[in-house]
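Entry 12.
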Amino acid sequence: MGTLSLAISGFGIIVFLAAMIPNFAYMLLAPQEQIEDERKKSHLNAEDLSRDFFAFFLVAFVAEEKASIVYLIVAIVFLLLYYLTWMRYFKNGKKTEYLLSPLGFVPVPLAIFPNIYFAFASLYLNNMLAFSLCLIFAFFHIKEALKEYKKMKEEAK
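Predicted 3D structure (tokens):
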């Protein structure tokens, strides 16, 4: 692990924004009742805090050297899978169930894919602070998504 310096990481900003593009589209194009349901859930919790700290460390710290390009390639693959999952949602009428339903054998892909993307991007950036916080965020984010998926399945019965 290289030394981290407090500085703005241009690549860290790009990494973060690349995953936010579908979220911005969601905020603009999703049915109003879905947006209102999301707003009702808003409260400060471990998921939100870990996400915010992760984003800060991703953007505010720069390593002297990047790690292996393999990490970047893996990150891009998971970013593309994340985009594919969002396309499924938009293509299928913006139905809530597509936000949580599995993609193949992957449960809650909109929670899993971006976290794998962020983890490998953090490894590529040689930013172990961001990587550590990404793992904490992933735990809370995936746990919450699985809980919502289970609730959705029970309501559908």
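Annotation: The chain is about 75% helix and 5% strand. The CA atoms of residues 54 and 134 lie 6 Å apart.
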